[in-house]
Write a structure and sequence with these properties.
Helix content: over 70%
Number of helices: 6
Largest sheet: none
Number of strands: 0
Radius of gyration: 16 Å
Distance between the termini: 47 Å
Length: 169
């Protein structure tokens, strides 16, 4: 695994996020909601979003965060965490909802984003600063995306739940 991470970090990120987002959807359907009829297309959709969108986004964000705020000092870590919540999180959340609606062939790609963005972003602000503080401070560079993908399993369950909420207005 370490060899793959070093030689092909973007591919590793994409594969990790394909698995994590797909597994989170299975978890949301079977464990959290206990649906009778499993919807494999949802798992495929979410795995696709994880692998083609979220994995590469996270990989590139972490690289950029270290260019903008190099080092592991607590001040550098806090700058990265704050920048993530203010700049990266809105991009990632928007990418999730819009890509999901594109795959679902929704006639309005942004309606869901408009109604669910703030709640999703606020919830992320309560979750990711903790995960990313550990990540940016203690995890070696080649393992950062994989570490975040593990935290993203919990986050992805939340996104699956949010995606299934009815959009009103």
């Amino acid at each position: 695994m370490t060899s793959l991470l070093k030689k092909h970090p973007l591919l590793t990120a994409a594969m990790s996020y394909t698995f994590i987002y797909g597994a989170a959807d299975v978890s949301e359907q079977k464990v959290i909601k206990r649906v009778r009829e499993y919807k494999s297309w949802k798992t495929f959709r979410n795995g696709t979003i994880g692998g083609l969108v979220m994995g590469p986004l996270v990989y590139n964000w972490i690289k950029l965060a270290y260019i903008l705020f190099p080092g592991r000092s607590m001040l550098s870590v806090l700058k990265k965490v704050l920048a993530e919540q203010l700049f990266f999180a809105p991009i990632a959340i928007s990418s999730f909802y819009i890509t999901s609606n594109m795959i679902d062939a929704s006639p309005d790609l942004t309606k869901e984003l408009k109604t669910k963005f703030f709640k999703t972003w606020l919830t992320g602000c309560m979750f990711f600063p903790f995960v990313q503080t550990i990540n940016f401070r203690f995890i070696p560079m080649q393992y950062k995306v994989v570490f975040v993908s593990c935290g993203s399993f919990i986050w992805s369950n939340f996104l699956c739940i949010m995606k299934d909420e009815n959009t009103t207005s």
